Amino acid sequence: MISKFSLFISVLFISSSIFATSIEWGPTGHRTTGKIAENHLKKSVLKKIDKLLDGQSLAFVSTYGDEIKSDKKYNKFYTWHYVNMPFDKTYETSEKNPQGDLVTGINKCVEVLKDENSSKEDKAFYLKLLVHLVGDLHQPMHVGRAEDKGGNTVQVQWFGRGTNLHRVWDSDMINEWGMSYLELADNEQDLSKAQLKAIQAGSVIDWVNESHDLTKKVYASVKVGENLRYQYNYDHFKTVRQQLQKAGIRLAELLNDIFA
Fold first, then answer.
1. What pLDDT sits at residue 26?
2. 252 near 197, Cβ under 8 Å?
3. 50-73 confidence digits (pLDDT tens)
4. Which of 80, 84, 102, 197 has the smallest number of CB atoms closer than 10 Å to its CB?
C-alpha cells in the first residue's frame, strides 16, 4: 500500500516536473530581450512606453504572451507565437497558417500601436504581445518544422534529464548558464555602429527567414535521444546570446519607429 507521505512526494515530484517543462524561450530569455530593448530606445520613446504600461518595464511585460495562454479567451493568439516552414521554403514561399503566425501577429501589434484611434487598453495589450513575439521570432525553434512542432517532439536529454530540442533552446541552455536577465543584458556584446545598423536592417519577414536559416543548423546539431551536456552548451550558448541581443535591438527599432 502506498503511504500518504509517498503519495504526497509523488504528486509533488510530478507537479514540479510539469512546472519545469512548461517554460517557453524562458522567462529569463524574454526578460533579457526586453531589457536590451530598453537600452536601445530613444529617451522620448521610453517615456511614452513607461506611461502606456503604467511604469511596468519591457522586461516585466515580456512574458505576458505566455501568461495569457492559460485563459481560453486568448486562444486565438496561440498561433502567433510561431511559424512553421519546411527547410526548402522561405516565409514568402511557404504555406501560411490561416489562423495567423508570428509575422501576421507582429504586424497586427504594430498596426494597433500606430493607430491613433486605438484605446490605451488595446495599445498596452498589443505592446505586451509585441515584446513577447519579437523574442519568439529569434528563438530558432519557433520557426521550425510543423511535423515535430518546432522540435517539441524531438526527444533528447539535457545532462541526463529528459527534454526536447525546443526546450533546450527555450530555457535549458539559459538556465544552465545561471545568469539573471539583468546580468545577461548588462553583458550584451559591444557592437560597432555598422554592426548595429546591419542588425536593425530588413523587415520582419527578413528576420524570420534569417531565424529559419539558423533553425536548420539547430536541427542538424543533435541526434534523437542524444545526451546533451557541457560541449553542446559551449558550442551553442553564444548563439543564444546573439539571438537575444538581436531580438532586443530589433524590438527597440520597431518601438522607436512606432512611438517616434
1. 83
2. no
3. 999 999 999 999 999 999 999 999
4. 197
